[in-house]
Design a protein that fits this description.
With 713 residues, the chain is an alpha+beta fold. It is elongated and about 125 Å long.
C-alpha cells in the first residue's frame, strides 16, 4: 500500500505577500478607525508583518509553529474576552466592530488591531507560504468588505482595487513545491520566471490603471470616478460640479473631505448664503422634494420684488399715526432700518452646464444670458432656467438685503402681521401689489407647514422642541432659541465624524456630533415641531475667508458647500438660520494621539529594520566595497559565500573549509564557475604568503550566488 507523501512548499517571496496583507490592514482600519486611519494602519501593518515573519521563519519547524499558534490563539482569546466584556454608554466591543463606532475608542481600536493582526498574519502566511491556496488567501479581502457592508462606513472603491492588485501580485509569488530529496535543486528557468513576473505585474497594472480610461465629465481624481460608478450615499462635500437638481439631500457617512475644486466666483457686497436647492420631506435616507412643489412658474419676479418686509416695516413705522392703536403700538418707535438692495454676480468656473440658478435669500430678479430663456421659481424657492446655463457664464441676481428690527419681530406673530398688512393697505401706506405680495407670502408659509406635516417628528423630538421653546412668545424667539440651543447643549461640529446611524434622533440624543447636514436636519424638524414653517436648504456660504483681494471676488469651492434651514418668521419672510455657528469645533489634537503616532512610527521602524536587515547589510557591503583593499574584498566576498553554503547545508559556517564551500555551492546552486573563482581567490589569500591578491569580478560572482540562493527560499 502506497502512502501519500505530504508535499512541502518553499520559494515564496515574502515582500509581495506582505504588501497584500498591508492592503488588507489599511482597508480594515479605514472601516473601523477612519478618524485615526494613518497611525492605526501603521501599527496594524507592523504587527501583522511581525506575525507573518514569525511563521515564515518557523515554517519548517513544527514544534515552534505549533507553540506559536497556541500562544497567539491564547492572546487573541484574552484580548477578545477583555474587550468584549467592556461596555460603555455608546455600546460594546461588538458594537464597535459590527455597527461602526461613532467616535474613535483607543481601547477598542487596540483590541481590534491585535485580533485582526493575528488573523491576517497567520492566515496570510499559511495560505501563501506553508500551504499555498490562493482562494483561501483571497478570503482575507472579505473581512473589510463585510465589515463595511455591516456598518455605515462604505469602503471606497479604490481600496478594493488596491487589495485586488496586491492580491494578484502576491499570487504570482507564492511558494512552489520542493523535492523531498533536498540534495538536488530544481530551478525555474529564466523564461518561466520572467513570464510569471510579467503576468503578475501586468495584472496589477491593469487593475490599477483601468480607471484612467473611464470617461469622466470633470477633472476628477480616479478614485472619485470609481466611487461615482457605485450607487451609494455620499458625504455632503462629495458632490461633483454644479449639477442639476438632486433627487434627495446628502447624507453624512464620514466621506466629508472636500477636494478644493473651484466651482464659481461671486461678485457681491452682501456675502452670505447662496441657496442651490431646497427639500421638504424628511425620510430615513435624507430629505426629498414634495411633488406639489416641484412645478416652477414664470413671472415670479413681480411678487418677489413687492414682498420686501424691511421696506414694509419702514413704511408702516413712518405712517404709524394712521394705523389702529394696536397696530400702531407694534411699529411705533421701531428702528425700521433700511430696505437695502443687493446685486450678486456669479461666474461658473468648473466648466459645467446647469439649469439651477444659485441665489441668495430674497432674490427677486435673475439676469441671465439670453440663451437660457425664461426663469422659473418653485413654491419652495428653487430657481431654474428654461435652457441650460452655458459653461463659464456669468449671471446677476438682485435681492433684498434689509432685515426688519428684531425687537419688532419678537412682538408680532402671524395673526398680528396679517392684521397689520391689511391696516397698512387701507391706510394707503402700501400699494395693492405690495399688499397682495405680502399677504400671499404669509399665506403660503402657513400652507407649506400644513403640507409638510409631522413627517420625521417623533414624540421625543416634539418634547424636546416644547422644552426648548417654553416661555417664548413669538416665532422669532422660538427660532432663535432653537438655533442657540445646539451651542448650549454642547453639540460638536466634526467633519471627520462617522455616524453609527443615519437618523436624526441618533444625532440629537446620542452622538451630538456631526456636520452641517446633521444640524440643518435637526433644526428644521425642531422648528416644525414648534409650529414654525421650515425647509431644508443646501448650497454654499460666501464668507470672508473666500475673498481674493487680487480679483475682488469670492472664490467658492466644494469646501464652501453647506446645509442650513430657512425658517419663516412673520414680518421678515424666509430667514436663514444656522445651528452650526453655535456648535463647538472638534478638537482633534488629543494628547494621547501624539503618543499613538510615536508608537506607530517606532513600531514601523523596528519592523522595517528587521525585515530589511539583510538587504541593508548587503547595500552597506556594496557601498564600502570599492574603497577596500584587494585582500579585504576577497575576505568579505568569501565570508558571505561561506554563509550561503552553511545555510544550504545546515552546517556551522566556521567548520567549513574552502573546498567544502566550493562543493556545496557547486552542487546546490549549479554555479561552478562563480563558486570556483571565489573559493580559489580565498584559497590563495589564506594559504599564500604574497601581498595583496588582485580581485577581478568577485562581487559580480557573489551577486549571482545570492540571486540563485534567493530563488531557493
Amino acid at each position: 500500500m502506497k502512502t501519500k507523501k505530504k508535499v512541502k512548499f518553499d520559494g515564496a517571496a515574502p515582500l509581495p505577500i506582505m504588501l497584500f496583507l498591508l492592503s488588507v490592514c489599511a482597508s480594515l482600519m479605514y472601516t473601523l478607525c477612519r478618524s485615526q486611519f494613518i497611525p492605526c494602519t501603521l501599527i496594524m501593518g507592523a504587527l501583522t508583518a511581525g506575525i507573518f515573519l514569525l511563521f515564515y521563519k518557523a515554517r519548517f519547524r513544527p514544534v515552534v509553529t505549533t507553540l506559536s499558534i497556541f500562544a497567539l490563539v491564547l492572546a487573541a482569546w484574552a484580548v477578545g474576552s477583555f474587550a468584549g466584556g467592556i461596555s460603555t454608554e455608546d455600546g460594546s466591543f461588538m458594537t464597535f466592530l459590527f455597527t461602526a463606532s461613532a467616535q474613535f475608542d483607543l481601547l477598542y481600536a487596540a483590541a481590534a488591531i491585535v485580533i485582526f493582526s493575528l488573523v491576517v498574519g497567520f492566515i496570510g502566511c499559511y495560505f501563501s507560504v506553508i500551504s499555498p491556496r490562493p482562494c483561501f488567501l483571497m478570503l482575507l479581502t472579505f473581512i473589510p468588505l463585510i465589515l463595511s457592508f455591516r456598518t455605515a462606513r462604505a469602503l471606497p472603491a479604490y481600496f478594493t482595487l488596491i487589495m485586488a492588485a496586491c492580491f494578484v501580485f502576491a499570487c504570482a509569488n507564492l511558494s512552489v513545491p520542493i523535492p523531498s530529496d533536498n540534495s538536488t535543486a530544481l530551478f525555474e528557468d529564466k523564461s518561466g520566471r520572467r513570464r510569471r513576473i510579467a503576468l503578475s505585474c501586468a495584472a496589477a497594472a491593469v487593475i490599477g490603471l483601468a480607471t484612467a480610461i473611464i470617461p469622466r465629465p470633470n477633472e476628477e481624481p480616479v478614485f472619485d470616478t470609481l466611487d461615482n460608478l457605485v450607487p451609494q450615499d455620499h458625504g455632503y462635500f462629495n458632490t461633483v460640479g454644479l449639477s442639476n437638481f438632486a433627487s434627495h439631500s446628502s447624507v453624512n457617512n464620514g466621506s466629508n473631505s472636500p477636494r478644493g475644486t473651484l466651482l464659481f466666483t461671486v461678485d457681491t457686497t452682501a456675502p452670505g448664503y447662496l441657496t442651490r436647492w431646497v427639500f421638504d420631506e424628511y425620510g430615513e435616507d435624507g430629505w426629498y422634494a414634495l411633488e406639489q412643489y416641484n412645478t416652477g412658474y414664470p413671472g415670479w419676479e413681480y411678487n418677489a420684488q413687492a414682498a420686501d418686509w424691511a421696506a414694509f416695516l419702514k413704511k408702516a413705522s413712518a405712517g404709524s399715526d394712521k394705523l389702529y392703536p394696536d397696530n400702531s403700538a407694534l411699529v411705533r418707535d421701531t428702528d425700521a432700518g433700511e430696505d437695502l438692495i443687493g446685486i450678486t454676480g456669479i461666474t461658473i468656473r468648473d466648466g459645467s452646464s446647469t439649469r439651477v440658478v444659485i441665489h441668495p435669500t430674497g432674490t427677486y430678479r435673475a439676469l441671465l444670458p439670453e440663451v437660457c430663456g425664461r426663469t422659473y421659481r418653485t413654491p419652495r424657492g428653487d430657481i431654474f432656467t428654461e435652457n441650460s446655463i452655458p459653461a463659464d457664464s456669468t449671471y446677476y441676481l438682485r435681492h433684498h438685503t434689509g432685515f426688519p428690527d428684531e425687537e419688532y419681530l419678537r412682538r408680532v406673530d402671524s395673526d398680528s402681521v396679517d392684521m397689520l398688512i391689511s391696516d397698512a393697505y387701507y391706510s394707503d401706506l402700501i400699494t395693492a401689489s405690495e399688499y397682495s405680495a405680502l399677504s400671499e407670502d404669509l399665506e403660503n408659509s402657513r400652507a407649506y407647514l400644513y403640507s409638510c406635516g409631522t413627517t420625521g417628528i417623533s414624540a421625543r423630538i416634539q418634547a424636546l422642541a416644547d422644552e426648548i421653546t417654553a416661555g417664548c412668545t413669538s416665532d422669532y424667539e422660538k427660532a432663535a432659541a432653537l438655533e442657540k440651543w445646539f451651542g448650549e447643549a454642547g453639540f460638536i461640529y466634526d467633519m471627520e465624524f462617522v455616524p453609527e446611524e443615519k437618523g436624526v434622533e441618533y444625532f440629537l440624543f446620542r452622538s451630538r456630533r456631526g456636520i452641517c447636514s446633521d444640524y440643518a436636519t435637526a433644526l428644521t424638524l425642531l422648528a416644525r415641531a414648534a409650529g414654525l414653517p421650515a425647509r431644508y436648504c443646501e448650497g454654499f456660504v460666501v464668507s470672508r475667508e473666500t475673498y481674493d483681494p487680487a480679483t475682488g471676488l469670492y472664490n467658492i469651492t466644494d469646501a464652501q458647500a453647506h446645509a442650513w434651514p430657512q425658517i419663516y418668521i412673520p414680518g421678515a419672510g424666509w430667514v436663514d438660520f444656522d445651528a452650526t455657528g453655535f456648535a463647538i469645533p472638534a478638537e482633534n489634537d488629543e494628547g494621547y494621539m501624539i503618543w499613538l503616532y510615536i508608537a506607530a512610527g517606532a513600531a514601523v521602524l523596528v519592523i522595517l529594520a528587521f525585515i530589511l536587515r539583510k538587504p541593508l547589510g548587503w547595500l552597506g557591503f556594496c557601498i564600502s566595497y570599492p574603497v577596500r583593499s584587494g585582500n579585504s574584498r576577497i575576505r568579505g566576498v568569501y565570508f558571505r559565500a561561506r554563509r550561503i553554503a552553511a545555510e544550504l547545508a545546515l552546517m556551522d559556517e566556521q567548520a567549513l573549509s574552502v573546498g567544502e564551500v566550493q562543493k556545496i555551492l557547486t552542487d546546490r546552486l549549479s554555479l561552478p564557475g562563480e563558486a570556483g573563482r571565489i573559493c580559489s581567490a580565498a584559497d590563495r589569500l589564506f594559504y599564500s604568503d604574497g601581498g595583496d591578491i588582485p580581485e577581478t569580478g568577485l562581487l559580480k560572482d557573489l551577486s549571482a550566488l545570492k540571486k540563485r540562493r534567493r530563488r531557493l527560499k
